[in-house]
Specification:
- By secondary structure, this protein is mainly α.
- It is about 40% helix and about 5% strand.
- It has helices spanning about 25-35, 60-70, 80-95, 100-115, 130-135, 135-145, 145-155, 170-190, 210-230; strands at about 155-160, 160-165, 205, 245.
- The chain has a two-stranded antiparallel ribbon.
- A hairpin with a 2-residue loop joins strand 1 and strand 2.
- Helix 6 runs antiparallel to helix 7.
- Its cofactor is L-ascorbate.
- This is Prolyl 4-hydroxylase alpha subunit domain-containing protein.
Length: about 300
């Protein structure tokens, strides 16, 4: 899960930006004249509840708009959703290169083609259901929502690495069955899918076959409260996007994954294996910005 956020500005604000009541066309024109000079907030409005954009056909993920809405200037939080979309889209288009926008559009089309043809096995997985997804201790910690409740939940075997019980065994079983069903569909239809990353040849991106909305709610309502406490220095309180996937290891699958640096502010690792040996997960600390992508070296005794 990532919390990648870039501050975007569009010059200085030269008016109060308030849309007065009266003639609708005049109000719209007045709003349009102020939009180009608006400036995003440096910090999000924590008390503001953003609108849902799931029902709109947008150039970017609906979750991006919901997250960015918290950074809108105060006077824009009460304008219509269409006006918010227009303003936020102009900012996103300005700061996202054309090539990246084309790539994102093609990925959306690819994802929509899968969702339109793939028939889920367990539809109950596609909507957040905390009582059946999570163990009681995790639900209580999230409900209490205090640093003390989170620290009671976790153990810290190494600085910055936290372990805790989270998912119900039955949920894990259903998720594995759903992934296996998706892989079966891929094989039967000979559909070429994108693997989770360039390092793994086996596995699937959960977002690509319909689990994006559920994972958004997982990030926003359950991971972000904890990352706010444990990872404040890297934007743990403002996580606004995720990359959810499953990878497979085995004799006839990928057998290992070398040392690497995740392209995220916060990573949630979940072991979904049934019966296996090996599969240890090693952490070797945090790299500085200058050496994020340099090769690994053996430790000197």
């Amino acid at each position: 899960m990532t919390g990648d956020r870039r501050e975007a500005t569009s010059g200085s604000f030269g008016g109060n930006g308030v849309v007065s009541s009266g003639d609708t066309n005049k109000s719209t024109q007045a709003l349009a004249s102020t939009l180009p000079s608006q400036r995003l907030r440096l910090n999000p409005s924590k008390d503001h509840k953003p609108e849902s954009y799931e029902d709109l056909q947008l150039d970017y993920s609906p979750s991006v708009f919901s997250s960015l809405e918290r950074y809108l200037p105060p006077n824009m939080l009460c304008v219509s959703r269409d006006d918010k979309v227009k303003f936020m889209r102009e900012i996103l288009c300005k700061y996202l290169p054309h090539g990246e926008r084309i790539r994102a559009q093609r990925h959306r089309e690819y994802r929509q083609k899968i969702i339109s043809n793939y028939q889920p096995l367990h539809r109950e997985l596609y909507a957040m259901q905390p009582a059946t997804f999570f163990v009681p201790s995790f639900i209580k910690a999230i409900s209490d929502n205090t640093e003390e409740s989170f620290r009671r939940l976790v153990s810290e075997p190494s600085p910055g690495v936290f372990t805790f019980e989270m998912l119900q065994p039955h949920f894990c079983e259903l998720l594995l069955e759903e992934v296996e069903n998706f892989e079966k569909w891929v094989k039967e239809t000979k559909f070429r899918i994108m693997r989770p990353n360039t390092m793994n040849n086996y596995g699937a991106v959960l977002d690509d076959f319909g689990l994006e909305t559920m994972l958004d709610k997982l990030m926003e309502g359950f991971i972000r409260p904890m990352s706010k406490v444990f990872f404040p220095e890297v934007g743990g309180s403002t996580l606004d996007s995720h990359h959810g996937f499953v990878v497979e290891y085995g004799i006839d699958r990928d057998v290992e994954l070398g040392f690497h640096v995740d392209d995220s502010e916060v990573t949630l690792n979940v072991c979904l294996g049934k019966q296996f040996s090996g599969g240890e997960l090693f952490f070797r600390g945090t790299r500085c910005d200058k050496h994020v992508n340099t090769g690994s070296q053996s430790e000197v005794c």
